[in-house]
Amino acid sequence: MKRRLLTGGTVLLVLSQFMLSTTGFGHGDVQPQAVDTEGLEVLPEEIAMENPYRVMGGEQYELARTIGASAYISNCARCHGLEAISGGIAPDLRMLEDGEFGDEWFMERVRKGYTQNGAYKMPPFENILNQEAMWAIRSYTETQPRPE
Ligand code: HEC
């Protein structure tokens, strides 16, 4: 039964559960992880307005998606859900479309986080992830299948 169901999603699930159990952190306080973005084109200091790897396309976009997938698992999945399918704690990132909830909104939230009544509901990532890693995560979430 387990074996038959070993799809990509299951592997990720097992992996993240393993990480949670081995680090000893509970659901809410997994340490954010720096991300190795080697191979991705280095971006200028200024924050881009549009996902540069989508604009480049081809291999850069592919690599961004791969790096983004693991960066997402270690930094975002505990709140936003595996494969970017929200379990309800935080928004489903597959729903972020171009336009109002597009690239700029994504970067704003990821860099600054989100506070409510003075408490962080989402931590700011601007000192944890570089711009390359953030766009890599964007590349991953924006190419996950959207709900029907
Ligand atoms: C501790 C939990 C937590 C973590 C970790 C977290 N987020 Fe969030 N995130 C939230 C919550 C809660 C919101 C909803 C805030 C709001 O109402 O805009 C949110 C909102 C967002 C939004 C805006 C979504 C929308 O529909 O407006 C984006 C984009 C986002 N997060 C990206 C990320 C990314 C990328 C990561 C990993 C690098 C991440 N988040 C990590 C809790 C989290």
TrEMBL record:
- Could you list this entry's UniProt keywords, alphabetically sorted: Heme, Iron, Metal-binding
Provide a Gene Ontology MF annotation, just one: metal ion binding
Q: Does the keyword Metal-binding apply?
A: yes
Pfam families found in the cross-reference section:
Cytochrome_CBB3 (PF13442)
For this protein, the record's InterPro entries field holds: c550_proteobact (IPR030991), Cyt_c-like_dom (IPR009056), Cyt_c-like_dom_sf (IPR036909)
This protein is called: Cytochrome c domain-containing protein
Cytochrome c domain span: 63-145
Q: From what superkingdom does this record's organism come?
A: Bacteria
